[in-house]
Every structure is written in C-alpha cells, then in structure tokens.
Amino acid sequence: MTDTAIAPPQLTGEQREFLDQILDKWSLQVLDKLCERPRRFNELRRAIPVVTQKSLTATLRRLERNGMIERVVIGTRPVAVEYRISALGETLQDLIDALLGWASSNMDEVRQARGRFDDEAGEA
Amino acid sequence: MTDTAIAPPQLTGEQREFLDQILDKWSLQVLDKLCERPRRFNELRRAIPVVTQKSLTATLRRLERNGMIERVVIGTRPVAVEYRISALGETLQDLIDALLGWASSNMDEVRQARGRFDDEAGEA
DNA sequence: CCGTATCCCTAACGATACTG
DNA sequence: CAGTATCGTTAGGGATACGG
Q1: CB of B58 nearer than 7 A to strand C
Q2: Which member of A36, A98, B26, B28 lies 3.0 to 4.6 Å from B59 by CB, making a disulfide possible if both were Cys?
Q3: Does B8 map to a domain?
Q4: How many structural domains compose chain B?
C-alpha cells in the first residue's frame, strides 16, 4: 500500500459480464456506425462486413438492453426501425474511437509478433 | 468530407479479429493485472475471480501470440514462469484503465436500463 | 422491411486426470 | 509449479425458411 490513490478497478463479475456484452465481435462495429448517425436495420447490415441477420439482431438487442442504443419504431408501412446511439453510448464514443485507432496503428506489430510466435511453435 | 482529418477507422476483418482476441472475457483482466506488475501463472489464477487453468492458459497463449504479453521461463526447479506486459501491451494500458473505469462509473445506469428493458419485455 | 424460428455445427468452457 | 490431454456440455453462429 504505497501510493495507490485511486481505487484499484477490481472488476465485479457484473461489470466483467457487461463489458463482455458491449465489446464482443459485432458490438464495437455497431456502436461505431451508430456513433456516426442513426441507421436502419438493413443499412447497418450492409455497413458491417458479413454479419448475419441473426447475429445483428442479437447484438442490437443486447446493446439496447444494456442501454447503449435506442430502438425507434417508425410506424410506416412496411414498418421501419431506426437504431441510434443513446446518451450512455455516446459517453463511450471516444474510447471506441481510440480503441479502433489503436488497433489500426499497431496491426503491423501484431502481425510480426504472430509470425515470431508461429515460427517458434513450428520449429519446436 | 468536412473535417475528418484522420482516416475513418473502417476495421478490416483482420483488425476485428485481433480486437476480438484481446478484448474477450479474460484478456482484459489479465492485461490489467499484468500492467500492475509481472505475475506467475498461479498468481494470475488467484487474482482473477474464477478462471480455470485451461481458459487462463488459452488466454495467455493468445495474448502472447498477439504480442501483448511476454512469457519468461525461469529455469528453477520446479519450473517457474513469469508473464509480463510487453511494450505493445503497455501502449494499451491507458485505454484498458479507461474502459474499466468507464464500466465502473456507469454500471448503475446500465442496471437501470436492463430493468426497463426486462420490464417492457415482461408486460408485452 | 424487420424481424423470429428452426436446424445444424463448431468453438468455447468446466471438470477432471495426468506429466515434466 | 505450470501446464497438457480428454471428455462432455453448452452457447454462439451460419443458413434457411417463414411471419407481421
């Protein structure tokens, strides 16, 4: 106990589960797209490489349940649905951008690390 | 195209996969622990709530392969192994802290959102 | 257009036992 | 101590078909 002024972020199981639900494979991309502007379901589907209907629906429901996005039903015919980032979701925007930017910037080094790792495994 | 000075972070599949591998259930916690100081295998195991040997091993291998951590074998008897954050991993430290901090700060609002969502589903 | 329902398959995980 | 190996279960994901 020397100089830990701020409380150590000992994650509770609840928090771990929550982060797990908003940092998964598709969520980051959905949040990223919705940070730009609201989108319709099929619009999102097209914007995200190869997500299936099922996975996208599941991701949207999960994000909505966790308060990260809002689902707005527009009562036209046929029905239209718009998804948009929530106030809570917006507070994560900078972090997401930073994360995606970090991944882009360091992908090269990651590739090299993978090469080294796989080589060592191969010769052993 | 108004003021987007930085390139839009259109994630490649490769980058998405990479982020997926270092933001998963256990990785965040492992990285967090190793940012504090190097740790031994069983030390990590105890430090992280309920991870199993198998999952911890898999997580460590994945992080090592992606260049985020380093595995140092100390040739004592019985063998000791120390894991520590890599230079690349360190560049993510602030982001991880921010992420964990954000989760802590907003957990309350998340709980409320869940309550609302589950209520609506229940009465429907 | 926006989903839900179904089938199927595989990747992940926990539990347990065993090795250098 | 630090793993690997195996087994059985289960959650996630893709493909497809159908409904409001």
Answers
A1: yes
A2: B26
A3: no
A4: 1
